[in-house]
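Researcher: Please generate the 3D structure of the following complex. Treat every line as part of one assembly.
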Amino acid sequence: MKDEIRAMQEAMERHGYIAEAPLATVVHLALSMRKPLLVEGDAGVGKTELAKVLAALLNTELIRLQCYEGLDVATALYEWNYPRQLLHLKLSEGSGQSPAELEHTIFGRDYLLERPLLRAITRKDGPPVLLVDEVDRADDAFEAFLLEVLSDFQVTIPELGTVKAGHVPYVVLTSNRTREIGDALRRRCLYLYVEHPSLEKEVRILQARVPGASQALAEAIGRFMQRLRARPLSRMPGVAETLDWARALVSLHRDRLDADTVHATLGCIIKDSADATDLDQPEIAALLSESAA
Amino acid sequence: MISAAPAHDLVTHVARFAAALRAQGLAVGLHEEMDGTDALTHLDLLNRDAVRWGVRSAFRVRRRDWDLFDRTFDRLWSRRQGSDHPPVDDPLVPPEPHRPSGRTLGSHRTPLVTRVAEREVAEGAAPGFSPDAQLRRKPFDRCTAQDLVAMERLLRRMPPPGLPTRRSRRLVPVPARGAVDLRRSLRRAVGTCGDVLSLARRAHPLEEPRYVVLCDTSGSMDPHARFLLAFLLSLRRVVKRVEVFVFNTSLTRLTPFLSSGRLHARLERLAAEVPDWSGGTRIGGCLADFAARYLEAVVDARTDVVILSDGLDGGDPAVLAQALGAIRRRARRVTWLNPLLGDERYRPEARGMAAALPFLDRFAPAHNLESLERAFARAAS
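Model: Done. Output below.
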């Protein structure tokens, strides 16, 4: 079964995601155990990307629910199409329909707007990948609701009755740990912590995702990023920043790093004013010579 | 070979491994064991790394506990993999954490348990009973044991007044005066053929404040610590979300011990739980420890962090500044309550206190009950 993990790594790499064996093992488990996958890690290490690759890998739809504080059932699950309902009511005035009949009509499936969670449950052609992004941003009340959906894969709409999942979706939850996820939700999931990539992995990611970057440039960027992350930064740049930076350098036609170039494009990787002030030209030059060594 | 062993052996092995992790403080329960066993059926048991990663994921081991997990894994899931039976001889009992025994809180000046005094007060024959208002303003370091008991009764009667609140981002139905709730309005209109006769409304409800309180219990805080803790315990009765930590030379999370029982019994228990009560201080180091271990879990953008300390720190001010900076970035507000500030001659010139000032939203006295109540009432307003 070792091969399955290797096969998973290769398949993910075909879709542009460089996965180390631990990550591939957990993804393999999540797919075969059909358990939701809770992915934690610093911003920009590729948590959301993992769900996208999974969807591509399984050749299915990615349904994304972005969480935020105050997220409620109407945004996450379903909403009634009020304008349509009103229109229908107005048009059927005088048609002699009883209120009960009317209600039955306008609270039917045709008037229901499916939001991500409901869509993930009711999708007809095979299970989709449901990405619940930044679940730590939603509040505890929503987390409790999510827990209910994830344990039964069915939801109850008062006007319609219970809707059960035709296909149980593959679920990926991501968290930036702005608050701790509740134990009950954690217990439903397999856990994956994504770390900042090693030098070798980062270079491979660069080569896979930014084909315009030469081997030498990719390696220089990778080494610089490794050095940079070793510093006490208040906001650690992730792979997302590395990729942005590489694309910026490619579009500026730079094929090597020097202090001026790095300083000019620092905004791609450093997103904190204190960090930017710390990293003045001499500091950058020092980092560059360290990383070239 | 494990893969060839009967299934119940696998279950036993996972259970033993889980128990070993539990013994070391990891939250690995029955759910984790079940998922761990399930995961193993999907993995090549001879691939030790895959087993490690799979079980780690199924046990939902947080990143910070990975070292502990790996060490235990290496011990329990190791060379003897090839034998028919998993290793059984390793009891894996961790050393008992050091607990000072028989120590009472604030033993220097304020006896911790004053049963006699309490009985007197409870029977209404309290000598030296102060009227409420006077008691509220009495500096902690001049309070007697009787005062404390009276103060506890006062706190029981009156929750800390005027706790601040904020509006939730969530919308809930309200009878009037809010944004129009189309969904419920329409639902009502169905009965009248779509004529909306009355509008349903919704608004953001008030939300309780959340506090994380870090209380200094070192020797220099001795005259105050007991009263501060008594106040915190009473605060916890009215605000559900209070996390309490105490520190001196090391940091202890008190929240689990704050749940039940009479106040003095609880304080007694606290004193037993906290190593080095009334000892020295290491404010910077303890706050750094808090930032590393608990910050992410207990502090979010809605949380008020309150530090109760005299700021007499012997450590490196830079450590303190860095830790406070990390807390400041994450918390809604950082308040430092200093009992010494009640003394008009006091200037916050101690090195630690001076390093902390730039990171504080509020710096206020906490030398008597009144000042404490005022500080908490304003902490998040």
